[in-house]
């Protein structure tokens, strides 16, 4: 059975301890594992106990990394799990870390979805772009409908976009087409685009 040779605090990560086994294995554990398992030099670790210790230490590491990630910027729960796995955390530990932060209220997909919609709405993007962002950020679809209510009506957003564009531009057929294409790329529907352009088309016709 593996025996603990020594236990040392990490010089680089506060609250982490290094457990050296006589098998040459190095375990990185948190304070909770140190207490829960009573880790000390000379202690032998039976197979099941060692497995539980490894699993617990992996969960602790995943939680610490998850908390750091979510503290840096908001993420959806699925985004968080994927990023943890990409950084080397096990899938099960990553999921448990995300569940833990969700229970604490630090991860909230419903509120995150609304934040995403408000952000891209302010940037002048339309419904399709907003949905694309929710999809890209792996927000579950059950939160989309409520989140989309945070966006302005399409017509209002289109009018705001066009007013800014034509403030310093001459209204020409070519420019109208260019802005129509730009609005389409931004995720607005054709009906809202046509409604918004109609005012400028009427202005153009007065000079024909």
What does this structure look like?
The protein is rod-shaped. The chain has a 3-stranded antiparallel β-sheet. Helices cover 61% and strands 8% of the residues. The protein has 10 helices and 3 strands, in the order βββαααααααααα. Helix 2 packs across helix 4, helix 5 crosses helix 6 and helix 8 packs across helix 10. The protein has 3 domains: 101 residues, Arc Repressor Mutant, subunit A (Orthogonal Bundle); 40 residues, Arc Repressor Mutant, subunit A (Orthogonal Bundle); 52 residues. It is mostly helical. The mean pLDDT is 93.
Keywords:
single chain; 208 residues; Arc Repressor Mutant, subunit A; 10 helices
Quick overview:
With 208 residues, this protein is mainly alpha-helical. Helices cover 61% and strands 8% of the residues.
CATH homologous superfamily name of the largest domain? Winged helix-like DNA-binding domain superfamily/Winged helix DNA-binding domain
The figure for the number of domains is 3
Helix content range: 55-70%
CATH architecture of the largest domain: Orthogonal Bundle
Strand proportion, as a percent range, falls in: 5-15%
The helix-strand sequence is: EEEHHHHHHHHHH
Structural class: mainly alpha
* Strand arrangement, major sheet: 1-2-3
Identify the overall geometry. rod-shaped
